[in-house]
Amino acid sequence: VQLVESGGGLVQPGGSLRLSCAASGFTFSSYAMSWYRQTPGKERELERELVATISSAGRALNYADSVKGRFTISRDNAKNTVDLQMNSLKSEDTAVYYCRRGLGAWGQGTQVTVSS
Fold it and tell me: pLDDT by residue for the chain (116 residues), tens digit each?
């Protein structure tokens, strides 16, 4: 199982970023996928915040209250990718963002920094 995130970077408040997670080594279309984030000072895996989840068929299942209306999760089962479109970014969105397969494997993370 391999999950590789990309698309992170530095963006000003109010800006947008699109994260992507490329999956391989398993039948991607069989699994729900999620994006989590880990903020500075929270070092344990258990402290990662669930941001959004999408079903195996492509239906968004939930969003964290803090990102509702600003973030959109999507997937392409033909390309084995799951994306997170992030709009109206705030400084508190600064974190390392992780892709996760179900309740199992994690990617290595991508840093998102929102700052002027």
Answer: 999 999 999 999 999 999 999 999 999 999 999 999 999 888 888 889 999 999 999 999 999 999 999 999 999 999 999 999 999 999 999 999 999 999 999 999 999 999 99
Extract the tokens encoding 106: 């994690």
Q: What is the 3-state secondary structure (H, E, C) of the chain?
A: CEEEEECCEEECCCCCEEEEEEEECCCHHHCCEEEEEECCCCCCHHHCEEEEEECCCCCEEEECCCCCCCEEEEEECCCCEEEEEECCCCHHHCEEEEEEECCCCECCCEEEEECC
